Amino acid sequence: MAGALGYIVRQARASDAAALLQLMRELAVFEHYIDHFRVTAEDLLARGLDGGGNRQFATLVAEVEGASLAGYAVLLEVPFTYDLRPTLILKELYIRDSARGLGIGKALMQAVMLHATAHNAGRLKWDVLPGNQPAKAFYQSLGGKRGEGWENWILAFD
After folding, report:
1. Taking a C-beta distance cutoff of 8 angstroms, is the pair 3, 62 a contact?
2. Residue 78 buriedness (CB in 10 A; 0-12 / 13-18 / 19+)
3. Where do the domains of the chain lie?
4. pLDDT at site 69
5. Given this structure, which CATH class describes domain 7-141?
6. E strands, the chain, in order
7. Could you read off the pLDDT of 23-75 as tens digits, one per residue?
8. Cβ atoms 61, 7 nearer than 8 A
9. Contact predicate 87/120, CB 8 Å
10. Dihedral sign, CA of 10, 111, 101, 31?
11. Residues 6+ apart with CB under 8 A from 26
């Protein structure tokens, strides 16, 4: 999928591992969990970017012409739920500061929605940090809405 401002959105490849890892580290800094960040390029390859049969996630990337990656989206799939259709979890969506405002986030989300449709997903879910008003406004502009009826609970195993 090509953007009007010189970028393309595509599936991540094994050759993207180092650049994708750098973007993931930037997100970890932004969301204040860099001290707990443990992912390596080898992990990305082993768990999904190598194209093997043990793929644990799907990743879409936005690549700016003549530059490196400007953003990415990581998707996880719950194979089936009550309606026997998968639920897609948008685990991460991140656009590098220097690339914000170019339409890359919208293009990535459109690619995520196409991916969901192609996989016959019944729904797409994601989390937003409570104070991230720009993200909330962005998702609302795409038709997203805050989920009702469920609370996000966590049980951490350290």
Report:
1. yes
2. middle
3. 7-141
4. 96
5. alpha beta
6. 7-11, 58-64, 69-78, 87-95, 123-126
7. 999 999 999 999 999 999 999 999 989 877 778 999 999 999 877 899 999 99
8. no
9. no
10. negative
11. 94, 96
Confidence of residue 3 (pLDDT cuts 50, 70, 90): low
Q: CA dist 115 to 75, 109, 120, Å? A: 9, 10, 9
pLDDT of 151 reads 84
Position 5 pLDDT exceeds 70: no
The owner of tokens 């008003």 is: 133
- The stretch 108-120 carries a mean pLDDT of 96
Assigned token pair, 23: 């973007």
Pairing label, strands 58-64, 7-11: antiparallel
Helix (H, G, I), strand (E, B) or coil at 72: strand
Q: Which residue has the tokens 């793929």?
A: 55
For the stretch 117-155, what's the b/e string if a residue is b when 16 or more beta carbons lie within 10 angstroms of its beta carbon? eeeebbebebeeeeeeeebbebbeeeebeeeeeeeeeee
User: What does each C-alpha distance from 107 to 43, 102, 120, 138 come to in angstroms?
Assistant: 26, 10, 20, 12
